[in-house]
Amino acid sequence: xxxxxxxxxxxxxxxxxxxxxxxxxxxxxxxxxxxxxxxxxxxxxxxxxxxxxxxxxxxxxxxxxxxxxxxxxxxxxxxxxxxxxxxxxxxxxxxxxxxxxxxxxxxxxxxxxxxxxxxxxxxxxxxxxxxxxxxxxxxxxxxxxxxxxxxxxxxxxxxxxxxxxxxxxxxxxxxxxxxxxxxxxxxxxxxxxxxxxxxxxxxxxxxxxxxxxxxxxxxxxxxxxxxxxxxxxxxxxxxxxxxxxxxxxxxxxxxxxxxxxxxxxxxxxxxxxxxxxxxxxxxxxxxxxxxxxxxxxxxxxxxxxxxxxxxxxxxxxxxxxxxxxxxxxxxxxxxxxxxxxxxxxxxxxxxxxxxx
Length: 356
Description:
CATH superfamily of the largest domain: Vaccinia Virus protein VP39
């Protein structure tokens, strides 16, 4: 007969011999009662319910020091699958954003360490530049009408030029395009541009139209579900999407920037109108919008003037053209109304309505 696996202990006095297992069992029972008392305040029925809930929850051991929870193997499998999915989504999302930015850099012809300066006005412009954080001095430059100058400047450029009311001095950031234009007072000014390409006209930088103005533009054009709305320079697509969502109209947005096209498509998807609208990455000056019954614009005066011959050539008689903030030079006889909208920030926006 082999040796017993239990040891016996002899206590002093007349106490009987007790097995070690029995002692440990008694100690565990006491600890369990103490822990249940802390949670349940000594209530017998509560303690009983507490023990059942512990067993259902997978708690296998209770002590005054810790509670160990045994999770089923499927829990870890689900956790691993979820973690893998989120990691893959984050990876592809970052990759897609990087790819989109690279495409934009190629299409818009402005590298991250480069600055493009365009002359949109009809006269040549004389200006001075120097590189920031460089010992080089000022350089005199002359840019002819329609030309584009590009500079490698990782830290940026400082530019100076003269105009009727005095000199201007600006700091230009790398990875951006700028354009000499006339401001509302008819003076020379440097604005942010939309791209640095030499083979495409820079019509205007992207500035979102306030939604209150969007709604008023569509209302003034009397848009219905029978209309086809073209937004030339559509930005994030809000005008075309709103026309489809609110009036059931079909629409087309045209923009040169692939990032704006991606934003427009995402907006249409969220609104549930992808079957009614589409977005084209094109140069507006080379686009076909002859099917439009309504055209919306948020361009600059010189851009509207460049676009006017195309509007006259492509649009059918009776088509409506709505322009935000700027009139179409030479179309004074075609203007049939205008309204002023004041947005929440107190800014006034003028909307001009024309009929072809």
